[in-house]
Amino acid sequence: MSDHFPRALRELHQPFVHGLAARLAAAIRTPTDVRLTNVSSRTLWGLIEKLPDPTCLAVIASARFAEQALLEFSPAILFPLIDRLLG
């Protein structure tokens, strides 16, 4: 992981990343590699303006954290994932 992330942000998000990797691997029945590549806080409009078209956005929530998060999946990741899930 890159050293430019503040340590506190890495420690906050890393358990989520590990949990996502484990759940995703179980769902698609293949090993997965999930990495934290960017953590940022911005307005929704500021995020939407910079997203590629097409893209997939997923709003996630956790009982562990009070805040919601937004995951963005590029088509290069999403289409093979859907293909794998549908067989």
Computed CA radius of gyration, to the nearest angstrom: 14 Å
Query: How much helix, percentage-wise, in residues?
Result: 40-55%
Adjacency order of strands in the biggest sheet: 1-2
> Would you tell me the overall average pLDDT?
79
What is the CA-CA span between the terminal residues? 32 Å
Along the chain, the helix and strand elements come as: HHEEH
Number of strands: 2
Number of helices: 3
> Structural class of the secondary structure composition?
alpha+beta
| Main pleated-sheet profile | 2 strands, antiparallel
Low-pLDDT residue intervals, each spanning 5 or more residues: none
Described by the principal axes of the CA atoms, the overall outline is globular
Strand content: 5-15%
Question: Keywords for this structure?
Answer:
single chain, 87 residues, two-stranded antiparallel ribbon, 3 helices, 14% strand, globular
Structure commentary:
- The protein is α+β, with helices and mostly antiparallel strands and 87 residues long.
- It has 3 helices and 2 strands; from the N terminus they run H-H-E-E-H.
- The protein has a two-stranded antiparallel ribbon.
- The longest helix is centred in the first third of the chain and has 22 residues.
- The protein is globular.
- The model has no long low-confidence stretch (mean pLDDT 79).
